[in-house]
Amino acid sequence: MRITLDFADVSRFINAMSGTAAYAEWIAVDWGTSNLRAWAMRDGEPMMEASRLDKGMGALTPDQFEPALLEMVEPWLGGAKMTIVACGMVGARQGWAEAPYAAVPCPPVGAGTVKAPVTDPRLDVIILSGLSQISPPDVMRGEETQIAGYLAGDPDFDGILCLPGTHTKWVQISAGEVVSFRTYMTGELFALISKQSVLRHSMDEGWEEDAFLAAVRDGMADPQALAGRFFGIRAGGLVGEAIPGAAKARLSGLLIGAELAAAKPYWLGQRIVLLGDGRLAGLYSRALSAEGAAPETADVTHATLTGLTAAYEKLKEAT
């Protein structure tokens, strides 16, 4: 017989076995469009973590946020009011409570917060503000907390932070402030084109690195030809000999190359830190390196927790 325990069951089991409650001092939350992550924090360190892919902002109505949060963090709550500091799309207009944007140039966090409406008296949910830019128009939510976390460890940083993702951010940092930033929908375009366009018939498993780097060069050199090069991926598989993984690698390379061409004023000749984990950050690193840059990489989860912790400490000082 197989017994399946959810997160709450595991927490209660640990509490029962240890004889002590795993109550948090406070709770850190990163609540995005598709994912919810929470950490029970004590003495400045996470003691437990939980995540749910099906509890992101995009899947919830405003009245569902509190139950979704309680489902994950209730084992960490005691009888007293618990401070919960949240960043990300939870503060969007379609989220739990809209947190106002702070206009750049400004420090990444600290310009404003909003309290989420709750019915459970144990919850004190504070949502951090995002950042906005008037010209060209741009916004971010969640990334500002990651930026603050990175700067906490490198307060004298002067250069460019690149945050690869569905909507990749290029951020200019100087004197501890976000000076300007630009968002590129490269990740979302890749998902749409690879899964919903005619190119979905050409996508296969595997990865052809030479095809990726060649496509980065093509996207950089001739971004206006992108639409034609996209169809060339499909046509090449029909009239030529398809190389496993080449189509996917070429589509990714063309899109990232075109992004690098557009973002060149940000990264050319600058210190660049890729604030991201895993495969996508690796793609950006190799693409930038092929163009003569020397990108560094920092852990985005560590930056998120450090940024949320810095926000929590500021909130404590203000009370």
Describe the protein's architecture and organization:
With 319 residues, the chain is an alpha/beta fold. The chain has two domains: 7-141, 2-keto-3-deoxy-galactonokinase, substrate binding domain (Nucleotidyltransferase, domain 5, 2-Layer Sandwich), CATH 3.30.420.300; 149-319, Nucleotidyltransferase, domain 5, CATH 3.30.420. Helix content is 39%, strand content 23%. The protein contains ten helices and 14 strands. The chain has helices at residues 7-18, 65-73, 143-153, 186-196, 209-221, 226-239, 246-262, 264-267, 278-290, 300-318, and strands at 26-31, 36-42, 45-52, 82-88, 102-103, 113-115, 123-128, 131-133, 138-140, 159-163, 168-174, 177-184, 272-275, 296-298. The strands form three sheets. It has a six-stranded mixed β-sheet, with helices on one face. β6 and β7 (123-128) form a beta hairpin. The longest helix is centred in the C-terminal third of the chain and has 19 residues, at 300-318. The chain starts with 6 loop residues before the first helix and ends with a helix. The model is unreliable at 1-21 (pLDDT under 50).
How would you summarize what this structure contains?
This protein is of the alpha/beta class.
Tell me the layout of helices and strands:
Blueprint: H1 7-18, E1 26-31, E2 36-42, E3 45-52, H2 65-73, E4 82-88, E5 102-103, E6 113-115, E7 123-128, E8 131-133, E9 138-140, H3 143-153, E10 159-163, E11 168-174, E12 177-184, H4 186-196, H5 209-221, H6 226-239, H7 246-262, H8 264-267, E13 272-275, H9 278-290, E14 296-298, H10 300-318
Parallel strand pairs: 1-4, 4-7, 5-8, 10-13, 13-14
Antiparallel strand pairs: 1-2, 2-3, 6-7, 8-9, 10-11, 11-12
Helix pairs in contact: 3-10, 4-7, 5-7, 6-7
